[in-house]
Amino acid sequence: MYRYVLQRLLFLIPTILGVTLIIFLVMSLTPSTPGRMMLGPSATQADVEQLNHELGYDQPILKRYVDYVVDMVVNQDFGTSYYTKQSVFTEIWPRYIVTIKLATIGIILSTLIGVPLGILAAVKQYSALDSIPSLLAFFIAAVPSFVLGMVLMFIFCLKLKLLPTYDNGTIAALIMPAITIAIPPAAQNFRFTKSSMLEEIRQDYIRTARAKGATERMVIWKHALQNALLPVVTNIGMNLGVLIAGAVVAEKLFSIQGIGSLIVDRISYKDEPTIIAGTILIAIVFTVVMLLVDIAYAYIDPRIKAKYERLKG
């Protein structure tokens, strides 16, 4: 098990290098340069070239990539922002923490809403406890997040005045954007849990357990749910990574100073160091989350843990 975890952690190295290279290539293919984006269309070409030279952007892309990787690995330096001239890590870390908090609250809410409702809908199939949540899940899946966020803002922030409409530094400011990003994955968790539970409930071992006199509570919670959790846990882990990367809609709508909105803002200035560093942090947390999902598999299914033990041997 420990060897497997170490192998997955070492996998972060090629992942980070690959993400860095892809961003360098994509940014090099986009039109214009940081000098032109920062000085505007009215600036002279000489001024633009001078600024690009000061930023080191006139160097070949391969040299800029190698220099960046060397500074990142050797000096733990993510570079200096083209736009603010500040250390990139110092600038993005507080906003990264805000996004992590927002995504964590969102994934907790989506799990607490979607998974229990999915279990209930599977157990009470064809009843109102199945039909109503299923209908709502299909409806929510078709509603874009920004539309859902505006509706929630209008009702709870503007009309009822229960929550702030912008980031005022309190935990209350994260509640509404967290709900905005939590509802779509909650609907997804509901569908995954329901379908997985229905598949397990129809298995032969469930009928055998009932025939041996096991209570319905034991059949559902001990036998069916344990085997049905594997795809649900995978979906929850992927949703957390998606929420961290895709929280920009809620961040923009509710004026949350997160890393997603920062990356989007700096794209307009072609601020490569900030964009690359922010994307690397997102890639790292996504890889770590999927590693935690794999580890959770071992505790849910003993057969997977035995497989890890064989690899260790």
Describe this structure as you would to a colleague.
The protein is mainly alpha-helical and 313 residues long. It has 2 domains: 11-74, no CATH class; 93-268, MetI-like (MetI-like fold), CATH 1.10.3720.10. 79% of the residues lie in helices and 0% in strands. It has helices at residues 2-10, 12-29, 34-39, 45-55, 61-74, 88-123, 128-141, 145-159, 172-201, 204-211, 216-246, 248-253, 259-267, 272-300, 302-312. Helix 6 (88-123) runs antiparallel to helix 7 and helix 8 (145-159) crosses helix 9. The relative contact order is 0.14.
Properties at a glance:
mainly alpha, about 325 residues, 2 domains
Which oligomeric state applies?
single chain
Number of helices: 15
Question: How many runs of DSSP E, i.e. beta strands?
Answer: 0
How much of the sequence lies in strands comes to under 5%
Distance between the termini: 10 Å
User: Could you give a short account of the major beta sheet?
Assistant: none
- What's the CATH class label of the largest domain? Mainly Alpha
Low-confidence stretches: none
Secondary structure class reads mainly alpha
How would you spell out the order of helices and strands?
A: HHHHHHHHHHHHHHH
| Amount of helix | over 70%
CATH architectural label of the largest domain: Orthogonal Bundle
| Overall tally of domains | 2
Name the shape in a single word. Answer: globular
| CATH domain topology of the largest domain | MetI-like fold
- The CATH superfamily label of the largest domain reads MetI-like
The chain-level mean pLDDT equals 84
Q: C-alpha Rg, in Å?
A: 24 Å
